[in-house]
Amino acid sequence: MRCAAFVQALERMNDGVSTTAYGGYEDTERKTIAFNIHDVMYVNFPIVPIAITYNEKFSKAPTHRDYLGTVMYVSEEVTPFIAENLDQVGRVTVAK
Fold it and tell me: How high is the pLDDT of residue 92?
């Protein structure tokens, strides 16, 4: 069962429980899901973007797949750790 179908089944089985999903854009395959109880819909997804740069002169551009394999979603709490420790995307060395 796909995740979206599983979440919808949970909502149907549990009266008063609803969900809010965030994935960057509407039809994204992977999303972060918040479970809401009794129609409380305040959700603040703590996701932040990270800019990753590399030297184009010495490296072939990383692909979308390379980026997703390295970092999918970044929670606000771990952003400093990733920014300090991320050295490669795919086989490409990235700048700090």
Answer: 87
